[in-house]
Amino acid sequence: MNIMLHMPALLIVLPLLAAFVTPLIDKLSRKARNAFVIAIVVIEEIMMLFFAFHIFSGNIAIYTMGSSEPTKLVTEAAVPIRIVLEVDAMSAFMGIISATVAMAAAIYSISFVEESKGKGKFYTLLLIMLAGMIGMEFTGDLFNMFVFLEILSISSCALIAYRNSDGNAVEGAFKYMVVSNIAALLVLFSIALLYSQYDLLNIAALSKVISYTELDKVALVLLVTSFAMKAGSVPMHYWVPDGYSPAPASITAMLVSATQASLYALFRVSFTLYGKVITASYIGVFLIILGLLSMFIGVTMALSQKDIKRLMAYHSVSQTGYMLLGVGIGLYLLNTSDFNTYGIKAMEGGIFHIINNAMYKGLLFLTAGAIFYRLKTRNLNEMGGLAHSMKYTTLFFIIGALAIAGIPPFNGFASKLLIYEAAYRVSPILSIVAMIVSILTLASFVKVFHSAFMGAKIYEVEEAPKSMLIGMAILAAVIIILSIFPGLVVDKIVAPAAHALANWQVYAGGV
Amino acid sequence: MIWAMYFAVAVLLTAGLYGVITKKNLMKVFISLSIMETGVNLLLITIGYIPGGTAPIENGNFAKYVDPVPQALVLTAIVIGVSVTALALSLLIMYHSKAGTLEYKEGMKW
Questions:
Q1: Which domains does chain B have, with CATH numbers?
Q2: With CB atoms counted within 10 Å of each terminal CB, which end of chain A scores lower, N or C?
Q3: Please, what is the Cα angle at A76 between B48 and A87, to 5 degrees?
Q4: Angle at alpha carbon of residue A434, lines to A431 and A437, rounded to 5°
């Protein structure tokens, strides 16, 4: 049995199965449960890396669920029936992000949520969240994508309300539930519109026959808006600060990559599903406008925040803007002669920014969690002088802050530079706004650094516990690797992902 | 009669969305959400329906049968809807025990 063939299904099944075994092991002992969860996330990460590099070398993996020969399609009626998983370079790229962040978050949680009750269920939900993200990224079936979207939102909603002694957590979770549920219903509505015309649910098969009727346009608009809503882009960004700030820090880091799974779905729909027909560039313009608004409004809202996690949450709205801008430029230029010169560069920048953002945003949220763990406050005005006692946390915060502000040589600089250059060719205004936002980001993180870490020693606190430091160190190590070898990463990982998005024929040809 | 079904879908969806946007009471927001969900499920059922069609079960003489796929989709969507309902109601119970009310107020002090 060639295990590589079954990898797409195994990567989803492993965390899903482990999720429901965890409470049973929790009954035996806490130590065994912790060891089990860590083993699962580490195995998941290793499997994901092996599988991803298999995909990056130019393969597309197909897996038909429930078939005796899963790599062959069941095509009795000339269309693929059953649920088909299809993994191309973009999906594998997103899978690496989810698995890495989940690994860091799970290890971090070991000491972070030690005092709280119901920890077995915490890990169950965390693993379901991971399964939901990977499922969304790997599936080749629209309805299956809806199911995984709901799995992801239900589990993350329950985890936002994990600290239910805090009223804000309940309120944030309810807001998140309403927003994500409306988004999911609109996705289901547009699936119904597409199914009524083509009798198909498979993305690749749909993309071959789609003819851009009026109903298809309605479905496209609904899909793009609902996924943008779930990705936390500006007109619907209000759930982001409310949901991110009361959640446990490790879950906030997971939520960042959950929003990026929605972003992946947005890109998959607009590039692949509608790849054949999307000659009019207004969806690209729409994404660029959303990106600019998210960048600017996110960062200006962040400047005035006093709650450290709320501030970082607004920054993640603003960082989502960069990805929308980069990939939106790609979509705007798709099928034009400029695409191959700088359109693809913009997409590479946007996609590179996805992995960068997941890593440094995750790291920053984890450091904020470490501060909260010791001081029991998120208010910046009550902090100060932490650099004296929490040396490693300070170091990790500096790495994350420099990376998010795009200071060379950190990875944020590499991806932002790609976006600036391509945006300048489209319109100088775009890159001017992007640079101003980058400067404001730096300003706001200087503020956080100054008020939390600098100054005289106020609190007698210890360094964060070991497992939290390991969780942060994993993300910091990834940031440093991405920073030292940006060229290699772009060539080997990001460019295949960008090309996989840009050429819908390759994805459609897989089925 | 199909037009009546589509009309009902439109009414349910817009009524639900209107409720979610305008209501201040969180229970009413949630009920509106359920109404929207019913609308979407009804749409899925309607697109698979063929007037005079039978259930797609092989018994020797079936010429016209309804599309089974949307029905399977609706079953899945209903199951998901139930879990959303359970979660939302438990959140509302917690909300009520904290705030003492189900009305949403701006700037609530927790």
A1: 2-52+66-99 (1.10.287.3510)
A2: N
A3: 90
A4: 150
pLDDT 10s digits, A76-92: 667 777 888 999 999 99
The verdict on a CB contact (< 8 Å) between A195 and B70 is yes
Distance of alpha carbon A452 from alpha carbon A372, whole angstroms:
11
Query: Under DSSP, is residue A141 helix (H, G, I), strand (E, B) or coil?
Result: strand
Task: Determine the residue of chain A that is closest to B72 in CA distance.
Answer: A143
For A180, nearest residue in chain B (alpha carbons) = B84
The tokens describing A204, both together, are 């690749």
With residues binned 3-state (H G I as helix, E B as strand, rest as coil), the percentages for chain B, rounded to 5, are: 70, 5, 30
Query: Buried b / exposed e across A388-415, counting CB within 10 Å, b at 16+?
Result: bbbebbbebbbbbbbbbbbeeebbbbbb
- Give the C-alpha separation, A257 to B25, whole Å: 32
Residues of B in contact with A201 (CB under 8 A): 69
- How far is it, in rounded angstroms, from Cα A37 to Cα A493? 28
What lies within 8 Å, CB to CB, of B70 at 6+ separation is A192, A195, B44, B45, B47, B48
pLDDT digits (tens, 9 = 90+) for A266-311: 999 999 898 888 776 788 898 999 999 999 999 999 988 889 999 9
Least Cα separation, residue A309 to chain B (angstroms): 17
Contact A188 B47 (CB under 8 A): no
H or E element: which one contains A62?
A: strand A61-64
Are A188 and B87 a contacting pair at CB < 8 A?
A: no
Bridging pattern class, strands A61-64 and A84-87: antiparallel
pLDDT of residue A234: 85
Cα(A123)–Cα(A26) distance, integer angstroms: 10
Alpha carbon distance A497, A93 (integer Å): 7
Tokens 């010429």 belong to B63
Average pLDDT of span A248-272: 92
CB A129 within 8 A of CB A252: no
Structure tokens at A258: 């959950």
- Write the residue in A161, A166, A196 that is nearest to B47 by C-beta: A196
Give the pLDDT of residue A154.
94
Q: Phi first, then psi: what are they for A139, rounded to 5°?
A: -75, 150
Residue A338: per-residue pLDDT: 81
Chain A hits for B86, CB-CB cut-off 8 Å, are none
A196: closest chain B residue by CA: B47
CA–CA gap between residue A318 and residue A271 (Å, rounded): 23
